[in-house]
Amino acid sequence: MQKTALPEHPSLYLLSLGCPKNRVDSEVMLGSLLDEGYQLVDAPEEAEVILINSCAFIGEAKQESIDAILEHAQLKETGKCKALVVAGCLTQRYAEVLQAEMPEVDYFVGTSAYPRIASILRGERDRAVIPDPDYIADAKTPRRNSMPRWTAYVKISEGCDNKCTFCIIPTLRGLQRSRPIADIVSEAQRLVKEGAVELNLVAQDLTAYGHDLPGRPKLHELLQALGEVPAQWIRLHYAYPRDFPDALIDALGKQPNLARYLDMPLQHIADPVLRRMKRGRDAAWVKKLVRKLRDRVPALTFRTSFIVGFPGETDSDFQQLCDFVEEMRFDKVGVFQFSREEGTPSFDLDGQLSQRVKATRQKKLLGLQRRISKEHQQKLVGRTLDVLVEGVSDETELLLEGRWMGQAPEIDGKVYVNRGQARAGQIVRVEIEQAGDYDLVGGIVGAEGPAEQIGAAMKAGARLVQPEVQMPRPRFPILSH
Fold first, then answer.
1. CA 477 vs CA 56, 59, 94: distances in Å
2. Which of 143, 316, 360, 454 is at 20 to 30 A from 210, Cα to Cα?
3. Considering the entire predicted model, what is its pTM?
4. Count of CB atoms within 10 A of residue 50's CB?
5. What's the chain's average pLDDT?
């Protein structure tokens, strides 16, 4: 393919799809390119380089990624685009078929090629750069935070050693690679100096942190070291429920700068399904852990996720899951339909269920959780919560919006502030007056006047955009299941 030469300081548009872990990878590529003189723009029509960091975890994510590629490829004809680059999990998983089916894409970049992005765009490498997944960024890696600067993600490890039968991540990301404690603390300190008051720890398997490092440090030892970092909230995401020692529970319940928030994907509770998923723990163990966490971590916000419609899931198995959710009263629950992914052991399992059954079960479990969530929300009315103000509301200029400790960025609800003044990035005391299914409304304690933002909005270090995409369904065989 004939490559078009880029100008000395190209304009860049970066679209990051998928999870927060993918966002960190996007921020690494962004930091590398900005250091090379690239100029970030908000509109793809104005970009000479369009970089899409894709996701391929389940069918819907693959579809979203392909739709985005096809939409932005049109800008090679109608916009300024001289180079279209597709990075990330979709490329890692389907490099050969994408090269054949998408001649409009100039470069395909795998999940361990991010630090090479500048040299790839200088034309120094082949069209597809797909090394084995064995890389992880460190505190010295160029990275530009794309969130509002008061919040940031910190990836503490990459890859996964678990053998869950539904999951393609080990193939896309490789085996677990943890960062040393000192390196993580160094990055956390830098992010706080840049204005972060909230740090969100992410990994494919947070609780397995350190087992691959010399001395085998544990997650609670990392958290103890992060206790010296002057962040207000450090939040734990993607905590696999196989190993959760008492020392980790004690840290979550007692360490001042740890948010009383835990994101632990349990996936199911019926023993036959857990065995077929190869989750490594049975229902009795999981229930004991959940009860222990609830008992020993006061006011814990517990987020989890479940897969419905896994091969062989019977009506009885699903009813056990509903009963479990009813009993445990989780604060927040995500429910996903099983996605049959080639390359995973569950692809060939017998007992595959119909789309109708999966959709029906998802709807029922989400409806059950919606009622539970509403009850949790109503209990917050009349309480006073610390709220991190994020600026004027997108809904109306008459309100400020923010989040309390029990609301993680991007995935949970908001607190709308209807009274009082505050700066974006400031934590204020808010008395909760109303509650919806997921959002809260209240006024700053002691304030009388209308809600108003003081000073200019704090800008993100860079803005990664994720627009809605409406495109015809493509013809690619990777979406046939």
1. 14, 12, 10
2. 143
3. 0.91
4. 29
5. 91
